[in-house]
Amino acid sequence: MEQITSLKKRLARLVSDMFGGGVGENEIFPLFESPAEPKNGELCLPCFRLAKALRTPPGEIALTVARSLSELADEKKIKEISEVKAVSGYVNLYFSDELFRSLIDELGDISRLSKLGEGKTVCLDFSSPNIAKKFHLGHIGTTVIGNALRNIFNLCGYKTVAINHLGDWGTNFGMLICAFKMWSSREKVLSDGVIELEKIYARYNKESRNDKSLEDSARAAFSSLEKGNEEYLELWRLFKEVSLNEYMKVYEILGISFDSFTGESFYTDYMPAVVEELREKGLLKTDDGASVVYLSDYNMPPALILRSDGSTLYPTRDIAAAKWRKQEYDFDKCVYVTSAGQSLHFAQWFKVVELMGYDWAGDLVHVPYGTMSFGGEKLASRTGNIIYLDDLISQAVEKAEKIIDEKNPDLKNKRETAVAVGVGAVVFGGLSAARIKDADFSWDTALSFEGDTGPYLQYTYARAASVIRKCGGDEVSIICSYSPNDGEKRLIMQLSVFEDKIRSSLKDYEPSVITRYLLDTCGVFNQFYHSSPIIRAPEDAKGFRITLTKKFLQIAGSCLDLIGMAKTQEI
RNA sequence: GCGCCAUUAGCUCAGCUGGAUAGAGUACCUGGCUACGAACCAGUAGGUCGAGGGUUCGAAUCCCCCAUGGCGUACCA
């Protein structure tokens, strides 16, 4: 907020002058805070640090400052301030009605935000499921966090490249090919999709425990696939196509799109050059038959580049992919959204890239998130402890439908709205807490529609939209003598920190900052809504409140967009 | 063993570079729909901020140590 910033600057200069420049204005400026309690004003200056510099008790300083500023305010020399109080070492400042009225214009202005990333490109690697598996709970963290980050970067003016680094290569495919040849058919796979693939894969896994020869044939099959066996390649393409069809449905319902689907298979051709480069740069050592880069100087175990049988590994592929992306997109940052369990892996290969001499190693960012469990147990398809995303979404949608039938049976597009709310509840679930927190999934929480939930946000949005709809073409003008009440003041202040919240979520790669902010903002709006009539308000208040409600819709709408939830006009 | 992360109300979580009486939601109890939408709002109650030291005028926040839990720790991704 430009006006608040410039006010702070002026105040800092004034305070500095009061003490003969004993403390510089640049030191005073960052001391300004927003009081936690609205009753303490809109802006405050804690005087404890000043007390140290000036060797005067904080209470005394606060009193001196308050008295001088109060005089200036009375003389209309600081017309933004209506009242100044000294309270236990703080100077509390109350904004004037005039300032509140003019702050409204500035609300929701993102012009400064959208300059942050001008001319910069960010690659975001997220979602990245392994082919031939159904989309489940374990995938939604990376998917919704990555998508939200991408939206945040976009809002801030960055060019983004959303990359779905599909897990579409590896010995698994050898198993799948063998299993397919024994128990399945093209028709079956085409009709049952990923379910069929999961089924035969699980069966192969199970049977290979008793019959070790199955493992050998799987390895042989994959090796043959790598060498270009046309029959196997054809099957691999089928598996990939069927899986991708399933994933595209999921992404469509979540409203998420990608700029690239270059998965692991894509980089196989680029890996030999990486291995060669590591060798040339003297980084590659042989240990127990495997090729590694030692990282003991950095307090990490070695990065494995080649297995003792000469085949490549995860870090090899990631390094190759990073090099390719740098060349292709010339990114300023490349962000990887994966589980926190992979932190060491990323630290290792980031270091290897640095040792290779690439200055852009510092632009690689790992964004970890916590582990999702269910019933206190690890999610695993092997043990059957798994929740598929389509089940979760359809349950949420079903519940939303039920509630709509109950509370708003005349709603026109019921199904569409129920999907928006059901999906919103699921997305919200993935973005409400700080991403690093572990979470134990519970149906009760996931399907809860009251309190701090996705439906609460959408309900509040729809309610505000409904008010504006009912005002129709009512003329909106802010009467220049209107005196905002406490609820209106609070809403203005709440809406005014939008820009700060976006900056903070961008800096920390933390979408939950926006989710939290939106929850708080909806709470403040609801208080305003309950305490101040809008449509039936007196003329002077009406224009003010309609404008404020529109600003709320704009900012809440931006937040919903950012976290990837639908903006429900009616619900 | 070593490393990383977490620990705040019964439960799920906020708490900005240290600042005012540590805040929400949920669950329990209570009040508010002939009303711009009750998927809401208001109120009561609920805390030795995991334990102990230290730095500071001031610590949930910074430092040290310990405890508990999760994850990782050379041929999976």
Any guess at the CATH architecture of the largest domain? 3-Layer(aba) Sandwich
CATH topology of the largest domain: Rossmann fold
Poorly predicted ranges: none
Please, how many helices? Answer: 22
Distance between the first and last residues' Cα? 33 Å
Largest sheet: 4 strands, parallel
CATH class of the largest domain: Alpha Beta
Q: Estimate the helix proportion, in percent.
A: 40-55%
Strand arrangement in the largest pleated sheet: 5-4-9-10
Average predicted confidence as pLDDT? 93
Describe the oligomeric state of these chains in a short phrase.
single chain
Structural class by SSE content? alpha/beta
Cα-atom Rg, whole angstroms?
29 Å
- The CATH superfamily of the largest domain is identified as HUPs
* Domain unit count: 3
Which strand-content bin applies to the residues? 5-15%
List keywords for this structure.
571 residues, alpha/beta, Gyrase A, domain 2, Rossmann fold, Isoleucyl-tRNA Synthetase, Domain 1, 3 domains, four-stranded parallel β-sheet, three-stranded antiparallel β-sheet, 22 helices, 13 strands, 55% helix, globular, RNA-binding
What does this molecule look like?
- The protein has helices at 2-18, 25-28, 48-54, 58-74, 97-106, 137-155, 171-183, 186-192, 194-210, 213-226, 230-254, 271-280, 314-329, 343-355, 389-407, 414-431, 443-446, 454-471, 486-496, 498-507, 512-531, 539-563; strands at residues 43-46, 81-87, 90-95, 121-125, 159-163, 284-287, 290-293, 303-306, 333-339, 364-369, 372-374, 377-378, 439-441.
- The strands form four sheets. The chain has a four-stranded parallel sheet with strand order 5-4-9-10, with helices on both faces. A three-stranded antiparallel sheet has the order 1-3-2.
- The relative contact order is 0.10.
- A hairpin with a 2-residue loop joins strand 11 and strand 12 (377-378).
- It is 55% helix and 11% strand.
- The mean pLDDT is 93.
- The chain has 22 helices and 13 strands.
- It has 571 residues and is of the alpha/beta class.
- The chain starts with a helix and ends in an 8-residue tail after the last helix.
- The protein has three domains: 2-95, 2-Layer Sandwich (Gyrase A, domain 2), CATH 3.30.1360.70; 121-369, HUPs (Rossmann fold, 3-Layer(aba) Sandwich); 391-563, Isoleucyl-tRNA Synthetase, Domain 1, CATH 1.10.730.10.
- Helix 18 (454-471) packs antiparallel against helix 22 (539-563).
